[in-house]
Amino acid sequence: MFWSDRDDAPALTAPLGTNINADLTIIGGGFTGLWAAIQALEEHPGLKVVLVEGERCGFGASSRNGGFCDSSLTHGLENGLSHWPADTEVLVRLGHENLDEIQTSIDRYRITADFRRTAEVGVATEPWHVETLERALEAHLSIGDDMKLLDAAEMQARVHSPTYLGGLIRHNDTSLVDPARLCWGLRAAAEKLGAAVHEHSPVTAVTHDGPALRVVTPGGTIRSERVLMATNAYPGPVRRPRRYVIPVYDHVLMTEPLSTEQIASIGWEKREGIGDVSNQFHYYRLSEDDRILWGGYDATYHFNNGVDPQHDQSDHTHGKLAEHFFETFPQLEGLRFTHRWGGPIGTTTQFTATWGTAHEGRLAWVAGYTGLGVGASRFGARVALDLVFGQVTERTELEMVRTKPFPFPPEPMRWAAVELTRTAIQRADRRWGKRGLWLGLLDRFGVGFDS
Ligand SMILES: Cc1cc2nc3c(=O)[nH]c(=O)nc-3n(C[C@H](O)[C@H](O)[C@H](O)COP(=O)(O)OP(=O)(O)OC[C@H]3O[C@@H](n4cnc5c(N)ncnc54)[C@H](O)[C@@H]3O)c2cc1C
Questions:
Q1: pLDDT digit string (tens) for 224-249?
Q2: What is the dihedral of CA 145, 124, 121, 301, to 10 degrees?
Q3: N or C, which end of the chain has less CB nearby within 10 Å?
Q4: What is the pLDDT of residues 91-115, one digit of tens each?
Q5: Which of 62, 224, 242, 370 should be mutated for ligand 1, with most atoms under 8 A from CB?
Q6: CA angle 173, 184, 175 (to 5 degrees)
Q7: Which residue out of 71, 74, 234, 239 has the highest number of ligand 1 atoms within 8 Å of its CB and is therefore the one to mutate?
Q8: Ligand 1: which residue has its CA nearest to atom 9?
């Protein structure tokens, strides 16, 4: 993977090798787990926090992603409006505060992660996308976002692709980041605040131990007052989230660095994050060293919540992504892709995180941000801390937090329903966005499948 295989990757921390005690144990060292450690220690200095990660911090989605760090806590404004219209104002405000606090923490802990508050551009590449952009504009203007609609000529002047039929620029509430370096910086910050981080320490069980819990790893156990499970798409040691959260593989290509002439041939001077608005959408951005990260399109579910390193590579999906890349930027013909990878996204039927507790409230879990968890994971961790410390806050009172999404059916219906939905989504993209009977039915029940 491009982001994580670089010379400045930090050395691994030692695996847990003995039996210890903790006030709070965090399982999983992605963004959720790391932000949980940091926020817990900022709020309760001196708390004994132990974070155990099965591989290395950032091994999962947190260092495989596109680095779009958005203020939305609801996988986009329109999804939030459709599920929780009464809470929109609060969710939007909390989302902006969350993004601001991410930036503040990056500054406070001196994390070098190429974090840039930049605009995001939605592009239309089919005539029906233009209407989608117009609807999005209306929704965003209703909450006071700083937005601008561009016609085909304006969009093509900004970024030179012959496929663009229009664009929608959102100025005020998004950013781009180098995700692996953010993980590394957050790990260092958590350790500086006093957390003990043990990598290569997969948790195999969480059991009762008197009034506390015991977190079991191959090298030792942790007797802990409270536990926060942050394993997202991975099957963690507590089964409860598996009804609500399924792993879906998303794939990415990274090009070699572009030459000055190649960069000039595509414009893109403002280096915004770009995404098209198909149901099977692509997202793309420039890296610090002028590569293009190009991802999305296919979202693949493997039977029985399958998560396996062999799913990281897909000749079919990576091939399609390459084809679409050169359709978008024909002037870059001949550019090489130096990296390709994939990773599991945890998704729910309403595309946002969901929370829960187990073991009489001594363990809290959060998972399911779908493809917009880089920013939202900090908020997800904050809410999970509220829950595990028994605090009633504005956050825990949100309907999004109090209620669960519609569960996925058990196998083999789960696989069949996801495949049916994927096929219907592909068909809708071929038929001017017309959603057809199956997607219409899902829409009516407020459920769906996305990446
Ligand atoms: C290809 C791809 C592109 C994406 N692009 C974007 C994007 O541009 N913007 C955006 O907002 N979101 C994006 N996402 C989603 C985003 O990356 C995730 O929502 C976010 O990183 C979730 O963080 P997390 O910490 O909850 O999960 P993860 O990062 O998956 O962390 C879970 C951790 O738990 C560990 N673990 C699992 N089981 C155990 C165990 N038993 N014991 C100990 N540790 C365990 C894993 O090793 C892993 O490190 C993308 C995801 C993918 C895969």
A1: 999 999 999 999 999 999 999 999 99
A2: 100
A3: N
A4: 999 999 999 999 999 999 999 999 9
A5: 62
A6: 10
A7: 234
A8: 68
